[in-house]
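Let's practice the habit of predicting before peeking. Look at the sequence and jot down your guess about where helices and strands might fall. Then scroll down.
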Amino acid sequence: MDRIRLRKLAAERAGVRTSRYKFAYNLDELKDACESIGYPCLVKARMSSGGLGSSIVYDYKDIEKAYEKAVKYARGFGEHVIVEEMIKFDMEVTELPLACLNLNEKPDILLPRPVGHVRTGGHFHVSWQPFVDIDEETDESTVPFQGYGSNLHLMEDKTSGKPLWRSEWNDKRLPGKLVREVENKIYETAKKVVKCLLGKKGGFGIFGCELFVKFDEKKPEVYFNEISPRPHDTGMVTLVSQNMSEMALHVYAILRLPIPEIINMFPGAAHVILSEKDGVWGPTYRGLREALMKRNIILRFFGKPCTYKHRRMGLALAIGKNTVEARVKAMEVAHTIEKGL
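Done guessing? Here is the structure:
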């Protein structure tokens, strides 16, 4: 993805909210940009994916190292970078807008329920759908919120160490009205960006729109982060949570097939299976029997021929009574497989 062009499109053409940002085209400009945005800030390669070429810059002395990393992992425009303000979000969300033909055979954009997710080192680690469960009787979240920096987050993502901050909503129940307001802002933001991307020529397929969410009762905020024109890694949870997975939706849209409805059928979660060892060819997976003793679990292995430290080798998928239960089940199964990998 071209982060500079996408940020201009989102902020200037679509008019959606983003973090403060600056572009830099050499090391000197990067130093000025970081000083202007303030610390800590994010430095990202103009073109890359999967978090490659991205760094957190805590102060001036980190800038050169961040620049070297961005240049090394860039997939084009090697010296070009974007500097972004660090948003202290409550959670990260992926919306999966689908550009397709509606039942009247007119171009439309369908909006599935948002997916909550956790990243580690810039890579997808955990995702769940819906992003927040709501109890219709109490009109608040079904279970206490487990957002950024929560105990569950720290158990899921052991490799990141101490979180940079903790959501003030952790272990509290979110008001239903607040969640609905945020959800509508998620849909509005994603739809605006996709419409700008498609332009007058149009197009078909699914997008992965990454967003930051702040649950402020006075003024909740949704910030655009990035977007990819394809099924998204965080969206793999739809293999168990929706009536149609993101992959099926992508194919249906491209083939102009009818999609009557996208339903979030179950609270579901996905947790990556990481390799802790380096340079193992033809890896074997142990602990399958123990892992599959849990109810409503599906395992998917990616068939990668060798390992390296923290390489994503597969996925544990789970459904539960709520997304927290599903997240815990998927985490426990993934960690069981990791011990035997």
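How did you do? The mean pLDDT is 94.
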